[in-house]
Design a protein that fits this description.
about 120 residues; mainly beta; single chain; two-stranded antiparallel sheet; 3-stranded antiparallel sheet; extended
């Protein structure tokens, strides 16, 4: 039975990757397909109400425990239509809890730079 990996991303439609069981790495090529985000109707309110709602939502919107994440970073520098350089990296991210006075930390796991 083949392994199936589904992963949604913000800037791309859900991708599906199927492979036979095997050892080693699997290359996955994704295609950028913009997804239109729904419009959020914002109604003006009393400034005090907005601040009170924001403060009341801190526990819901911000983690109270530390979190470890892995991310992907890409940077490209162009001059007109010519790429000058492209850099990519896989990063490990430590997200500190909101209630503690700690800094978030990022560590580069693997990087690649390609000067053009």
């Amino acid at each position: 039975m083949p392994d199936i990996l589904k992963y949604p991303t913000l800037a791309m439609q859900q991708q599906v990757l199927t492979s036979a069981k095997r050892q080693g790495q699997i290359k996955c090529i994704t295609e950028i397909q913009p997804i239109k985000l729904q419009e959020y109707p914002w109604l003006p309110k009393n400034a005090r109400e907005i601040v009170e709602m924001a403060l009341g939502s801190i526990k819901k919107n911000y983690s109270q425990v530390p979190d470890m994440m892995t991310g992907f970073y890409r940077e490209s520098i162009r001059q007109r239509r010519t790429y000058l350089s492209i850099s990519e990296a896989v990063v490990d991210i430590y997200k500190a809890p909101y209630a503690k006075f700690q800094n978030d930390k990022v560590k580069i796991y693997k990087d690649e730079r390609a000067p053009m």
